[in-house]
Design brief:
Helices cover 30% and strands 18% of the residues. The chain is of the alpha+beta class. The strands form three sheets. It has a seven-stranded mixed β-sheet, sandwiched between helices. A two-stranded parallel sheet has the order 2-11. Helix 1 runs antiparallel to helix 2 and helix 3 crosses helix 4.
Amino acid sequence: MLRCGQMMLAQALICRHLGRDWQWERHKKQPEEYHKILRCFIDRKDCCYSIHQMAQMGVGEGKSIGEWFGPNTVAQVLKKLALFDEWNSLAVYVSMDNTVVIEDIKKMCWCPPQSSSAARSSTFSHRSALSQNKNTAGFCSGWKPLLLIIPLRLGINHINPIYIDAFKECFKMPQSLGALGGKPNNAYYFIGFLGNELIYLDPHTTQIFVDLEENGTVDDQSFHCQQAPHRMKIMNLDPSVALEILKQQSLRMFELVQNHPAHWPPFIPPAKPEVTTSGAELIESTDKLLELEEEFEILSV
């Protein structure tokens, strides 16, 4: 699920910077924005959306290092990490109780213009993890692009057939980024459908570790599909999924409301938290990450 979350977010950033029609071609020179996106996902602790950052941020969601994430957990992790990503300046809204509140989204996406000097004075590093994404041009001014994630449960033990048509309609939306889900013990990134089958990308592929080269570029072949996507019958889908779209739209699977429900707690747009960590806590969490890396290396042998 960590890798699925990375794939979904990477697709969002490609749409944001390169356009939805952009396609990768091997050995073709790519724009600088493409390489900046790649550097966000390198498996290093100092990269914005690395597996290290996602696993560590998951601790705040009650998930120990190495524990499995569900679609909602990975959505909450991405929402928190996005607060430290000033280059992309992405507003990540995760709906609650199957309800999308337009009023709250507007509060989250509106960012008053800020002078570069004031912005620089207000920045602070999340364990120096996001320094490579800091860039004066990336400071928010006006309206932030929205990544809307809607965690859903479309049944108890199996998906309820009444949701199938609405679920498939989501993939037709031009703003759709697909869905995170899968089946027991397997997480997939769903990108479309054909008839009553879902088309998905499977992250369960062991690959060689890729790092930045001396000139700052990345060997990007393993970041792209080397084989055709897979397919599975939609009724085999686990009922717990997270839809990712860039525009709010009413479907039967969730509710769309203009104003914040009066019986809900007040909505407070998420802000970059001040991270205070003792040396002992940092050492302990780092040791767990190293153990996780060793497990990945053993699996790859």
